[in-house]
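Structure in, sequence out. Go:
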């Protein structure tokens, strides 16, 4: 009988130690989960950590971001997640990439849905940022019929959802609705100069009718709408095969390849940094003003000066070469942002130089990871690379 007791004593201590370890491990696991639900996790694409606030139920919104795996959408997701909201990203990954949002995949406030906005979807949400649509000309011209469907059927579907669940909806419209403008700079009251049958029409006219639908739903059904007319935006997470001047000039400069300008280079553009844009989108969504608002940086550059600036900043040996002008390429573009200043108390804060420094660093990483990136030309092309 004595052996029973000693056996019990002998076995009690290792089992106890085992229990201790298990308890300790569980506590550590819970602490780790708590930590993970208060921040993003570092990934190769987004190595810095973003903290998330804890919001009380009364202040926490359920927010849908269509196109949230894209360039602008993913930065907007970072802002909304950091504020402590629940965010649902809906994306078909045509030009968007999972890598743009994978630092949130573990977070309890975040959901990622692979879905095409041309199909209806039922969700319970409070706000919709409707960004789904390819933005770069080679990509939106690759399948113009699909681009039209995305802007028309996609926007109708999101408006139907907004109407059903009484959510406010913000449309990411574009300066392209001004076409090749005859008024400079462009105020929101300018009606535009668009070629309805040109190669850019699938995008420009798609966005114009999307704006029309927004006000039809507002006037007929009382849907709460917001419209941002976004001017050229740049920053980290731009698609490397985007084919527009910022990404192409940086990628060409970093690889010491010829910098290609289509046309004389005298055409002008204004460039805003993505952090400024997402703050503007947020201010517009949460303010009272419900007419279209230009969001852009009025700092205007000729394309030739812009190419030279990027070549200097990257200390590149690239030559600048001139190729034939692209059809319907607007000759000048500069936002009048007096409405945004007055109604949203918003104006861009990040200088083009500062934004370029961060964007050059991002593309340096992309070029290093890929070995070589061949920039996309102005012709229609399918986005390359994995989602
Ligand atoms: N970046 C700019 O300079 C700029 C300028 C003016 C307007 N905008 C507008 O802002 C929005 C975002 O632009 P971006 O630069 O982030 O472009 P982007 O191509 O990086 O992002 C668009 C996102 O929408 C997704 N998408 C496209 N079609 C879809 C569909 N049918 N269903 C679901 N998802 C779909 C893409 O996969 C991508 O993730 C677009 O609506 C664009 O028109 C952008």
């Amino acid at each position: 009988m004595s052996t029973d007791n000693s056996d019990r004593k002998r076995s009690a201590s290792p089992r106890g130690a085992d229990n201790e370890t298990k308890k300790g491990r569980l506590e550590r696991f819970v602490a780790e989960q708590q930590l993970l639900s208060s921040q993003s996790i570092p990934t190769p694409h987004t190595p810095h950590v973003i903290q998330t606030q804890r919001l009380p139920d009364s202040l926490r919104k359920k927010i849908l971001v269509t196109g949230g795996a894209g360039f602008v959408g993913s930065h907007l997701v970072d802002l909304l997640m950091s504020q402590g909201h629940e965010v649902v990203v809906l994306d078909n990954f045509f030009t968007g990439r999972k890598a743009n949002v994978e630092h949130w995949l573990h977070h309890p406030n975040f959901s990622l849905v692979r879905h095409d906005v041309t199909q209806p979807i039922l969700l319970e949400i409070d706000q919709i940022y409707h960004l789904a649509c390819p933005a770069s000309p080679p990509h939106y011209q690759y399948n113009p019929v699909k681009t039209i469907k995305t802007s028309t059927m996609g926007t109708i579907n999101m408006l139907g959802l907004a109407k059903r669940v009484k959510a406010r909806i913000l449309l990411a419209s574009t300066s392209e609705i001004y076409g090749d403008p005859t008024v400079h700079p462009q105020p929101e009251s300018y009606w535009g100069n668009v070629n309805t049958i040109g190669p850019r029409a699938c995008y420009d006219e798609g966005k114009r009718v999307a704006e029309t639908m927004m006000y039809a739903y507002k006037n007929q059904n009382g849907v709460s709408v917001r419209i941002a007319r976004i001017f050229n935006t740049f920053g980290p997470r731009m698609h490397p095969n985007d084919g527009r001047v910022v990404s192409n000039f940086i990628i060409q400069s970093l690889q010491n390849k010829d910098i290609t300008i289509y046309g004389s280079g005298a055409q002008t553009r204004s460039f805003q940094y993505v952090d400024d844009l997402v703050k503007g989108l947020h201010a517009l969504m949460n303010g009272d003003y419900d007419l279209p608002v230009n969001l852009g940086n009025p700092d205007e550059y000729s394309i030739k000066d812009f190419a030279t600036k990027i070549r200097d900043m990257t200390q590149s040996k690239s030559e600048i070469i001139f190729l034939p002008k692209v059809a319907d390429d607007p000759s000048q573009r500069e936002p009048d942002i007096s409405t945004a200043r007055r109604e949203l108390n918003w104006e861009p804060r990040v200088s083009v130089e500062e934004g370029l420094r961060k964007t050059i660093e991002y593309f340096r990483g992309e070029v290093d990871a890929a070995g070589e990136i061949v920039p996309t030309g102005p012709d229609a092309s399918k986005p390359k690379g994995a989602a």
